[in-house]
Design goal:
heterodimer; B: about 160 residues; alpha/beta; Rossmann fold; five-stranded parallel beta sheet; two-stranded antiparallel ribbon; globular
Chain lengths: ~350, ~160
Amino acid sequence: MSTRSIVPFGPQHPVLPEPIHLDLVIEDEKIVEAIPSIGFVHRGLESLVNKREFTEYVYVAERICGICSFLHGASYCDAVERVMQIELPGRAKYLRTIWAEMSRIHSHLLWLGLLADAFGFESLFMQAWRIREKVLDMLEASTGGRCIFSVNCVGGVLKDMDASMLKGFVQELDKMEIQVRAMEKTFLSDATVNNRLRGVGILTKQQAHELGATGPFMRASGINRDTRKLGYYAYGDLEFEPIISNDCDSYARCEVRIREIYQSFDLIRQAVAKIPDGDIAVPVKGNPDGESFVRVEQPRGEAVYYLKADGTKFIDRFRVRTPTFANIPAMLETLKGCDYADVPIMVLTIDPCISCTER
Amino acid sequence: MAKMSKSPWVLHYDAASCNGCDIEVLACLTPVYDAERFGVINTGDPKHADIFLITGGINEQCKDVVKQLYDQMPNPKVVVAVGICACSGGVFKETYNILGGADQVVPVDVYVPGCAARPESIIDGIVKAIGILDEKKAALKEGRLDEYEAAHCKKKQQEVEA
């Protein structure tokens, strides 16, 4: 019988841009168990609601995470707007949708690059990030920032995009789509990539359901659920179907995310075609008083925001349940029985965002 | 601009950052900014690194990790604090869990401001760090690295006071 040993993985590891620590219990080269410990990036920014006015806290909420920053800011605003019963102008809803989808494209391309890096395909990593720079250019042109946009405010958005800018973006996206399709061939048909991804890290539909996985990780296990279908912002007016796959392995997760990039291109085109004219924000009077729940589909899955306000200018409690937090138990399940060399891929296929998780 | 005497290898560690600066550090090395074409490589091994890029503020749990990584790096070494959080704690300064900037645990040579720090300014910071690396290398050769570091520390303190 082989002996068991424990190999520490992280917090600083070449494959991880962010710190998470796993104690890997291994028998020969097989993982028996993985014990996570988190808290390396905990900042305690939820406590800042008591020190920043509710209109200012949106800038802190954006800094929960630099990758999904737009949706964190927008969802915080959404939560306050629901408490104050503010109806957003149509144009603001569409603008938020467009920016949210751009963030999704940037996040998924970033993830594809990191995945390529994890299995040692450096040139593919560079390729994915080269395409990603185009989205960042668009985000920078429209919001002024590359990571942190600061474009949301309670009651709407701060910046508008004119018709020529939107048209230019759609043309740019068409060009990008050709590039992504060229890159897709390597991700989905290349033999070396297939060997690393096919049949690795199986998470069955039953397991995904029981362990509460979310986002593309869950949809790659055959569960048809997408929070965007609730129809928040302008998603109610747009046509799309959640992208699912029944393969349940790492390859399926890669495929789902690539197809979601095309879906985001399509959603932006639809939104640009339908965007109404009008104001981009409504004036906000008074202070929020009450409770609200907001659910949004972030690039990594469903995030839940809870907000409780007591009628003063400071919010009483703000809490976020982020998608990576929900995905960690399922990730630990996929780690069991996998090869030691596949651990980086397993950890990456949930698209971990530790800054979100630990706040 | 300082003369590049070598292509530095960098070690990047996310202390308690929001990811914004981390992806910008990576964006420095990937196409468009592409510092890798000058041989700047993001290494995962502290023992191979010349420049230590720290993003984010310091909290109780990552304090020891940052200290350990710094200690494992061979001399001469330069520390660059990337982003306002690594410089001072930034927007999270008032939270209960952030002790402050990276200089709470390791001596910082170059401060790169910004939230998130732009790739241009990060590259600027790295170029500045190469200059300091050369000075430290010369000092190390003459066996007066401790002296240099002490003088450097004093100079920085005077700058802060001024």
